[in-house]
Amino acid sequence: MITCYFENNNKAFLRHVTVNAIVIKNNQILLGLRGTLNGKPISESGKWGLLGGFFNHGENLIQATKREALEESGWEIDDLRLFRINDNPNRPREDRQNVDIIFIANAVKQTGKSDEEVSHLQWFDLDKLPTKEEIAFDHGDAVELYKKYLKENFPLPVLG
Known about the structure:
Largest sheet: 8 strands, mixed
Radius of gyration: 16 Å
CATH class: Alpha Beta
Order of helices and strands: EEEEEEEEHEEEHE
């Protein structure tokens, strides 16, 4: 949680906003094995996750999502479609109650390497994904919802 003090000195606990991308190429999804930051394990280190993270100052949703995907994978992405806004305050294994804005994106080309936050990248067939226990946070739920979307083509974005 972020503690903020307003102009009238009232204190409020606010939630963080994060972005993530379901990166697709050739009917496969790109997941990153969570690594370290400044040499220290990050939350859910050693588990697979979507590519994403926090906003930088002055970024909008698309800019932040493209930057995070590029930093964490070296892949440029395009054709972003808003998939889900996950505002559940009881997300599993979350210490900050992040509100997660998730996009579907197409992988365009790999122009670099992943940063230290991702120790390994892998493309997965949608029917050969890691187990739910091997996936960070509730990213596995987002991937399962994406698979359901491919079958049922329900309206987007999904709220909640």
